[in-house]
Design goal:
This protein is mostly helical. The chain has a domain at 42-136. It contains five helices and no strands. The longest helix has 26 residues, at 2-27. The relative contact order is 0.14.
Length: 143
C-alpha cells in the first residue's frame, strides 16, 4: 500500500524538484549582477549619521523645537550634505541606492531610539546637531 502512495506522488515530487529551482533562479537576479559592498568607512558612517541628524534637526525646526532656531538653512544645507555623503559612501563601498536608503533608515531608527531614551529629547537632538554642524562649516551657537 505504501509503495502505491509513493508511486502516485512521484510525478508531483519530480515536477516540484524540477520547477522550484527554475522558479527560484528566474526570481533571483544573476549573482554576477549583485554588487559587492565593502564595509562603510568610519568617515562615511559619521557623515551619513550627521546627514540623518540634520534631517531630524530640520523636522525639529519645522515644529519649532526649543534651541533649533539657530540652525539657519539646516533643511537645505543638510539635504545637500546628505546627498554628497551618500554619493561618496556609494562610491567607497559599491552600495546601491536601495542599500544606502536601508542603511540610512537603520541609522534614523537607531538615533530615534537614542533620543527617545533621553530625559529631554529636544536638548539631546540639539547636542547631536551641534556636534555635526562643523561638517557644514557652521560653528554651533550657544543656546
Amino acid at each position: 500500500m505504501m509503495n502505491r502512495s509513493l508511486i502516485a506522488i512521484a510525478p508531483l515530487a519530480i515536477a516540484l524538484c524540477v520547477l522550484l529551482p527554475q522558479a527560484a533562479r528566474a526570481a533571483d537576479p544573476p549573482a554576477a549582477v549583485a554588487p559587492v559592498v565593502k564595509p562603510l568607512p568610519p568617515e562615511d558612517e559619521v557623515a551619513l549619521r550627521c546627514g540623518v541628524i540634520f534631517a531630524l534637526g530640520a523636522k525639529a525646526q519645522e515644529r519649532g523645537a526649543p534651541g533649533s532656531a539657530g540652525w539657519t538653512g539646516l533643511a537645505t544645507r543638510g539635504r545637500e550634505f546628505f546627498a554628497r555623503a551618500g554619493a561618496k559612501a556609494m562610491d567607497d563601498t559599491g552600495m546601491t541606492r536601495d542599500q544606502l536608503r536601508s542603511a540610512s533608515i537603520g541609522m534614523a531608527i537607531a538615533l530615534t531610539g537614542e533620543l527617545s531614551g533621553a530625559p529631554d529629547t529636544d536638548k539631546a537632538l540639539a547636542a547631536k546637531v551641534d556636534a555635526c554642524l562643523p561638517l557644514l562649516g557652521v560653528t554651533p551657537t550657544a543656546q
